[in-house]
Amino acid sequence: MSIFQHIKPAGKAQFKDRYTTKAAELLTPYTEGSKGDVAIIGAPLSKPSISHSGASFAPDAIRRCLNSFTTYNIEEEADISNKTIIDFGDIAMHPTSIEECHQRIYQSTKEVAQAQAAPLTIILGGDHSITTSTVKAIKETIGTVGVIQLDAHHDLRNTEDGGPTNGTPFRRLIEEGHLKGEHLIQIGIRNYANAKAYHDYAIQKGVSVHTMKDVRQRPITELIQSALTRLDTQVDTIYLSVDMDVLDQAYAPGCPAIGPGGMDPDTLAEAVQQSIKHPKVQTMDIVEIDPTLDIRDMTSRIASLLIVNSLIK
To answer: What is the pTM of this model?
Structure first.
């Protein structure tokens, strides 16, 4: 027992309301056999980004921002304080080799999937290059994968010009045989954000492309439900990939590739919430946040909210 009345351990002196639980308090480090409602793992990689990016700092920022939220959802009248987020920690990146980093992400994702710690695993990027490794691991662990991609960009760039960058993950998956084009559904693709050649490639490979015009003209729940219905009978598992630059730049200043004309946070949250209700949606990533560019953690807070919302089904 401490002999001091008001002195607490360093970092533990914050104000505490006896009736309030913060979402960060739901984090529980993984131990062998741990089970929870959601699992998270960090993939702090940004070296392959084609633009300046500090996305390697995002997993820590997203976790920290869980302190911004309580566990009570007033609209649903639901308290999630009894839920558990199993935290596997972060994957150690190789200091110089991008290929080795991708291999470590693949191996670690496979190990996490095999642990079956939670019905939904969320991978915190990092840039979007991580998705080639994670989807490959899920395919080899669970079976045929379908992908719903919420993104401003196709991410179908060629690999000859820059190698395995954050602009190439879905092209690599298709060309390496891990993902069929018809099993990729893109939502939120934006004007003046992609080359015509990559839109042509998407159509040629059978990718379903829904632009922001589609998002504005149709309810997002309708678009998501259509994607889920299409993939449900064709694949063993559905992977949800959330590139935060699908949001309009007004809401996501922490994205390296910000731009106007994107989604608002409520639309994105509704898309994610609708998706994860489906039993085949077992894995999700959140990528492309650079906390060094963010303003008051605006972008990281939205990502954290997506995690908190995932605990309500």
So the answer is: 0.96
